[in-house]
Amino acid sequence: MEKGQCHGVLSFSINSPSPWGNEDTGRILEILKKHNVKVTFFMTGGWVESYPDDVKAILADGHDLGNHSENHKNMSQLSDEQCQEELMKVHTKVQELTGYEMCLFRPPYGDYDNHVITNAHKCGYYPIQWSIDSLDWKDYGVDDIVKRVVESDKLNNGAIILMHNGAKYTADALESVITGLQDKGYELVPISQLIYKDKYHMKADGTQVSGQ
pTM of the full predicted structure? Predict the structure, then answer.
């Protein structure tokens, strides 16, 4: 791709909630490696405990490890102390397992308010939402996943795409999603390389804007 052709930079995030399985994680990692794509895996404490070798494999392949809370609860309904405990329990598990210091937090169910954001910041975390939902967890099929992502009207520079490693069709759809985005000129990076970490402000829709 020649310089100037890229439509923008976007990121995949892959959620791993506690109740969901792990059947496709290895295959997803193989597909990502084949296309030299790095993403962000958001993990709950239960998933980290159940699949420690996969946590290590994800990190070894150069992907972000992200925090998806200890118990996958609605964070806006918790006290300050409970919010911070939900964050730091899984943080400690990952740190002790890998030595990695997570700094990205995806609130379960996309449920957040100022209270959740404030507590995430107190724990040293950047709260992360998504802008394109693949709805892969609804099991509508491969073609539906690919169309929802590659033909989304929200596909633009800075977009964050949500997928799940325990959904039925995600692994089958992933390669077509990647190549479809690349064919449109997008560069795919992990969220840690996508977001501003200082000198930014937030728009009402949650978008970061560079500068104070």
Answer: 0.91
